[in-house]
Amino acid sequence: METSEDDINAEEYPTEIHDYLTTFEKSLSSVDEMLKTMMSVPRSELLYKLEPLEQAKLDLVSAYTLNSMFWVYLATQGINPKEHPVKQELERIRTYMNKVKEIADKKKASKLDKGAASRFVRNALWEPSPENERTSKTPAKGKKRKMD
């Protein structure tokens, strides 16, 4: 009697986690394809084409991905990654990723053109016309009442 691969797999693990394993397998395939693409270009050539900020982002994402994969490996070996130095390494990389993000956000922020801003404010403020100016500068002349 021949058994199919699905029958063997169904016997090896609980059926409740089948969807999770299928998703995990697809994710691994996706990571594998990305790594193949990334490794097909020499690192020096890849970095040469990028600006320094983009180079830092690439290096940080690469380091974070590698350490995350090591985290998963530890978990598959029954080792608690939360008690392993890889946790501190991931936190350190995350800190640098936040710093690079701050730099990128500052770079994207529009620069204030002081001349344009002062013209905008000056034109937005109301200025009295010469006609209004004359009447507003002279005090109101009321008629004096005679006391009888």
Automatic annotation (TrEMBL):
GO terms for cellular component: cytoplasm; exosome (RNase complex); nucleolus. Its main location: cytoplasm. It comes from the Eukaryota. InterPro entries: Exosome-assoc_fac/DNA_repair, Sas10/Utp3/C1D. The keyword Nucleus applies. GO terms for molecular function: DNA binding; RNA binding. Keywords: Cytoplasm, DNA-binding, Nucleus, RNA-binding, rRNA processing. One of its GO terms (biological process) is regulation of gene expression. This is Nuclear nucleic acid-binding protein C1D. The lineage of its organism: Eukaryota, Metazoa, Chordata, Craniata, Vertebrata.
